Amino acid sequence: MYEVYVAASFEAAHRLQRGFGPASRTHGHTYRLEVVVRGEDLAEDGTLLDIGQLREAVEGIAASLDYRDLDEVPGLAGKNTTAEVVADFCWEGLSPPLRGRGLASLAVRVWESPQVYAGREGTLG
Amino acid sequence: MYEVYVAASFEAAHRLQRGFGPASRTHGHTYRLEVVVRGEDLAEDGTLLDIGQLREAVEGIAASLDYRDLDEVPGLAGKNTTAEVVADFCWEGLSPPLRGRGLASLAVRVWESPQVYAGREGTLG
Amino acid sequence: MYEVYVAASFEAAHRLQRGFGPASRTHGHTYRLEVVVRGEDLAEDGTLLDIGQLREAVEGIAASLDYRDLDEVPGLAGKNTTAEVVADFCWEGLSPPLRGRGLASLAVRVWESPQVYAGREGTLG
User: Fold this and answer.
1) HSE, side-chain direction, 13 A CA sphere, residue C2
2) Which DSSP state fits A77?
3) CA distance B75 to B92
4) Which residues in chain A are contacts of B3 at CB distance < 8 A?
5) Closest approach of C116 to chain A, Cα-based (Å)
């Protein structure tokens, strides 16, 4: 099994609903977005997939969240913008162009700080 | 599958038994303790579990080892305090309150330096 | 399941073939090599395996690539030296002495920068 990893970052504000103490106040993080794609086989050119292309996709989604209030971003507005939910959002955004290419799975991790992240992993197909 | 990660650190002394060269002398590390909890589903509030609660538990166990000689800590005294054994100790300490909450697994990694860690992963249930 | 991790680094040049844009020019990276060995049980001395021994092996393979042009290293010359292929090379170099010791798997990750890595994982036995 091979894997390829790309990271990007974005600065965003958010606030949690339903009683998470100080996290209920509007605050923000320097988010780090980590993405791992796994698959069984390398192509003839020695790649699992083109890291440059993956990097563009990951940096694109990070840029779409950069200097935003996550609670106002379409697809996140109305949800509780926990790190889990932001990971979900990024997973759903990144997975469609990765399907049908013989890849096994996609994992997304959303770091709110160097001490905390939440992630989602799921099969591609 | 979702996951939530929390890290903490502690400063501790120890020495290894049974011939590990310089590691047989009393020395110490700035340990980094990393904890990952995995589970299939998010609760209605968009969390796998409350990161704040997990953070308290992880920081609590780190605090209990901070500025200690690990070879004198109850539960570790008499054992060979390898990073694997310290990971075991933390896993056993952290897992009980995480059981019975629909979570799948708990992983603990104990870093002795930025170049070395040992970890333990096991199912919750 | 237990795991043990060791990291090392090396400085090397390379260039990609077959149209990877600027990566087709000779350039280089401060590579970080991460190695994880997994297994079910600890030995009586509280170790999965001797981290010192693993560290020697990992630092040995990193030293063999340090200040080299990867495209001229025996075993890599003639291949497209993507991070996946370098991970393959390290996996193949590290795995033989780890077999037959009751270990479950070996994972190798080759970081080209703090934003990008490729890795290979496979069973030992």
Assistant:
1) 25
2) T
3) 10
4) 109, 118-121
5) 5
Q: Taking CB atoms and an 8 Å cutoff, what residues of chain B touch C50?
A: 20
pLDDT of residue A39: 98
Residues of B with CB under 8 A from a CB of C: 17-18, 20-21, 23, 79-85, 87-88, 109, 114-122
For residue B33, the SS3 value is strand
Among A74, B16, A89, CA closest to C43: B16
CB-nearest partner of A46 from C82, C114, C119:
C82
Q: How confident is the model at residue A18 (pLDDT cuts 50, 70, 90)?
A: confident
- Do C73 and C96 meet the contact criterion of CB atoms below 8 Å apart? no
C54-109 confidence digits (pLDDT tens) = 999 999 999 999 999 999 999 999 999 999 999 999 999 999 999 999 999 999 99
Phi and psi angles of residue C95, each rounded to the nearest 5 degrees, phi first: -70, -35
Nearest to C88 by CA among A47, A124, A36: A47
A52 neighbourhood in chain C, CB within 8 Å: 20-21, 23
The residues on C that touch A, with CB distances below 8 Å, are 17-18, 20-21, 23, 79-85, 87-88, 109, 114-122
